[in-house]
């Protein structure tokens, strides 16, 4: 029924193997995502090019603000960048405090007392 290999591997080994895989996955892909952190307390003005796709940093940990550099993955945040396509070529202010209600665009939330009192690199 399971061949010679089944005789050599006890059933408990299969359970431990599943547990090892799930703990490894949980380490890299947490169930509850981390909170975004304040990258900067002012927006960054950039020129978006019509038709080009961008990835805006959601986690606040990217060294290439306001865009994603993959830090969310290597720091195991459980967060993903916001992918968007520019509809027209124009200058825009992209949020870096990560508290905007209109991501990826700045809505002035960085001027709030809550953001101004927060430390750069800390969650709100």
TrEMBL record:
Keywords annotated in UniProt: 2Fe-2S, Iron, Iron-sulfur, Metal-binding
UniProt-listed InterPro entries: CISD, FeS-contain_CDGSH-typ, MitoNEET_CISD
Keyword Metal-binding assigned: yes
Residues of the Iron-binding zinc finger CDGSH type domain: 41-75, 79-116
Domain of life: Eukaryota
GO molecular function list: 2 iron, 2 sulfur cluster binding; metal ion binding
Key word Iron-sulfur present: yes
Cofactor requirements of the protein: [2Fe-2S] cluster
GO cellular component, one term: mitochondrion
PANTHER family: CDGSH IRON SULFUR DOMAIN PROTEIN HOMOLOG, CDGSH IRON-SULFUR DOMAIN-CONTAINING PROTEIN 3, MITOCHONDRIAL
Identification of the protein by name: MLLT6, PHD finger containing
